[in-house]
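Researcher: Good morning. I'm working through a list of sequences from a screen, and I'd like to move beyond sequence-only analysis. For each chain I'm collecting a predicted structure so we can compare shapes side by side. This is the next one on the list. No need for commentary yet; just the structure.
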Amino acid sequence: MSDPGGSPPPPPPPSQNKDRLIATCLAGGLVIGVSALLGLYLSGSGTDPLGLGSRLRRRRKGGRRPVRVYMDGCFDMMHYGHCNALRQARALGDQLVVGVVSDDEIIANKGPPVTPLSERMIMVHAVKWVDEVIPDAPYAITEDFMRKLFDEYKIDYIIHGDDPCVLPDGTDAYALAKKAGRYKQIKRTEGVSSTDIVGRMLLCVRERSVSDTHKNQNHSSLQRQFSHGHSQKIDDGGSCSGTRVSHFLPTSRRIVQFSNGKGPGPDARIIYIAGAFDLFHAGHVEILRLARGLGDFLLVGIHTDQTVSASRGAHRPIMNLHERSLSVLACRYVDEVIIGAPWEVSKDMITTFNISLVVHGTISESNDFQKDEGNPYAVPIGMGIFKVLESPLDITTTTIIRRIVANHEAFLKRNEKKAESERRYYEGKGYVSGD
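Model: Good morning. Structure tokens for this chain:
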């Protein structure tokens, strides 16, 4: 009550306000008391005695901090095995940060890379499961770099496959992460490695450069080098005459894992691009990025092994149809693929897939498609829905093969060394759960 003859009494201190509010809650005015208490806290007046404001803030932030996982690698001649490793790593957390090893570190630890860092960065950025990329990552997880991962990048776990990663001195590259209790392991994708792919190319080159008399002898020699202990067979009617057959065993589940799982909307502008996409590289990624920017949904046609061989020679493709399809499916710019797309784009195909625009890049293994006879794009050209895109990078599958040929001896030595470690892995491996 105020004094009729004087000034009103001063307001009680904030602590008394809080006491009264809590008393209100206890007396039965729960809704009013809690509301007032929250209002007092959120306005900045003192502490939060019931902890309600902090819980509200956590809810506003989405509940919990996202789990961030880290995986590194050379990602040289990136293939579907790399992509599957990144997919598995991403499944262990909410955000995937990927370290791409520098050219100098690869040279020091393994030998020369086929693709430089700039191209490898493009490839890793394009993988749909990758959230962030660190360039020039070290080959080995040092204590300083591990601390940087934990403190600066807020990494919770470091991920690697079940195959060992051994430094030149024989030590485990992930020993420190394991010791810190921040290491998790995923299952290696069977049937492919960069060593294997380089071996396929070396085999093609060797076979094409020797006479038939010595062909079988040279084939046996290279076969032993790159077989990883598996028995080898020759592909009599497939992609690369005389090259080793891929050990990849495609399953429907793997295709589903790589697929986006949804089709275009009813009014989507669907862009179509087709090709071999052999040895999936940065040139492929960049033209797919441009194509996707022209519409709402990118449909990619992957030609059969027989179609590629007919147009580019019996030694192509290096990768088989299923391998090439998975590499393209892993690209974030791609919404769907046609596995075994026809060479010619027909009116029925355009209608079936509701294609709005057919595109083709300026950089290609063969750009004589606009000849008078047998133009595969004759129908979309006639319909006025065909466009040639300026390719951002002057890279083709032949470019990659020429790099191998130009540095043949260095890559041969690198593969001999790596193939031995892979042979030991296959001989001693056991079943690892996961996919």
